[in-house]
Structures are given as structure tokens and as C-alpha cells.
Amino acid sequence: MKIAVIDGQGGGIGKAIVDRLRRTxxxxxxxxxxxxxxxxxxxxxKAGANEGATGENAIVYNSTRVDMILGSVGIVCANSFLxxxxxxxxxxxxxxxxxxxxxxxxxCNVLVVGIENKSLxxxxxxxxxxxxxxxxx
Length: 137
Prior knowledge:
Layout: E1 2-7, H1 12-24, E2 30-35, H2 38-46, E3 51-54, H3 56-62, E4 68-72, H4 87-95, E5 99-103, H5 120-133
Parallel strand pairs: 1-2, 1-4, 2-3, 4-5
């Protein structure tokens, strides 16, 4: 399965997701790090992503070429990550027909109703479980 992990700013969330997936899931998992900036991409590559690319075109191009997209809810919000995530990136991710697994962090003024208030490590564990149980649905 090919998974895109999308992150921006310092890449900490993406790094944590990639690291946890690498330690938990089998080696057949192909992880593509897609960063809004080179630091975010670099952090995800250091955590074990197979490949990485940076910037708007990389995110737009790859958002339909994977089986699943992982990241915070901000990746579908135009101008999130302090403006690093462009409207074109958010549109490409949101319109992609692939499964999107989003961590509901309240950093872009989006509050998802009905979501349990958990710490980031607990949400990452939830992401890993979804990836492990995903069968292309």
C-alpha cells in the first residue's frame, strides 16, 4: 500500500506518523513524505519515509497517486500551517478520491464536533490502527 503523509511547518506531526508506522506496520508499506516546505519533508524522510517531495506541485501531483493520505485536518484547509498550505493544495487533497485519515487538531480554527479530546500520540495510534485495518475500502 502506498501512503502519503502530508505536513508543513516543522514537520513534527508527519515525522511522528511516519516513525510510528515504520515501527508498527510491515515493510510493504510505501510511505511518501509530502511537505509544504523542505524541513517538513526532511523530518519525515529521517523518520523512515521511502520517498519525499516538497511544495505545491508535489502535493497536487501525488494526491491522486496513493492509496491513502494521512495528516492533520489542516491539510484540507486553505492557507493553514500559517499560509504554507495553499488553496490549490487543499483543493487537490480534499477532491482526491483516495481515503484520507485526518487528525483533528484545532490549529486552523476548525473544531470537529463529536471528536474526543486526545493528545497527539493517542491520535497517531488511532491513525496506525486505521492503516493496519485498511483494505482499500
